[in-house]
Design goal:
The chain is α/β, with parallel strands linked by helices. It is about 55% helix and about 15% strand. The chain is built from 11 helices and 5 strands. Strands 1-5-4-2-3 form a 5-stranded parallel sheet. Strand 4, helix 10 and strand 5 form a beta-alpha-beta unit. The longest helix is centred in the first third of the chain and has 28 residues.
């Protein structure tokens, strides 16, 4: 008994599948032919919007016409030149013994706030900075080569102030030396500072040279 339905079922399916597959195949053979017809028509359409896309570039071109706007950045460079002509002056009160340490802290702060090392010049009125003493031990040629390279903080003493080139920021440490030396170096240090002069020393002594407005 279980064998009889098992044999009849495949026969029923075969007979059912036979006629169903044949017309379905014939019908599907007809339907796919018209279907690809509209699809290729849709394919060229995405290609046609392509020519319409050049139209947005035409809109970008007028946006490029505000090319005269770079004239505004051109005006910006003039502003730094004005600040370079009149550098700001900051006074950090310090004794002669602590002036060098105060100058080092000022340099660290400048570097931490984004100043490039080559933007900073440090001048001393008393004993030379240890870095300067170390570099001079290799000879003045090597020492001044570092100065000319301009890619690192440069340290010089008051006797060399006439030879050093200006930098955006000058840090002057009044760490000793004669009063006349400080009085003579400060005005020159001011001319070497492009944007900022930081003076570390006795406020009374500094004010007497640069004026009470420091």
């Amino acid at each position: 008994m279980p064998l009889t339905p098992a044999i009849e079922e495949p026969q029923i399916h075969e007979s059912a599948q036979g006629p169903r597959v044949t017309p379905a195949a014939s019908r599907t053979a007809q339907t796919p032919r018209p279907v690809p017809g509209p699809r290729p028509a849709a394919v060229p359409r995405p290609g046609r919007p392509g020519p319409t896309r050049p139209a947005p570039p035409a809109q970008r071109a007028p946006q490029a016409t505000p090319g005269p706007v770079p004239a505004a950045p051109a005006a910006a460079p003039t502003t730094p030149s004005v600040s370079a002509a009149v550098p700001q002056i900051q006074l950090i009160p310090a004794s002669a013994e602590g002036a060098l340490d105060a100058a080092e802290e000022a340099v660290d702060l400048l570097l931490d706030t984004g100043r490039a090392p080559g933007d900073i010049l440090v001048l001393t009125s008393g004993d030379p900075h240890p870095w300067a003493a170390h570099e001079l031990s290799f000879g003045e040629a090597a020492y001044w080569a570092l100065h000319d390279a301009g890619d690192d903080v440069f340290y010089a003493d008051a006797a060399q102030v006439q030879r050093v080139a200006g930098r955006p920021v000058v840090v002057f440490a009044a760490n000793g030396g004669a009063v006349d030396t400080v009085a003579g170096v400060l005005p020159v240090a001011l001319t070497r500072a492009g944007a900022l002069l930081i003076v570390c020393g006795d406020p009374q002594q500094i004010n007497s040279v640069l004026g009470a407005g420091v």
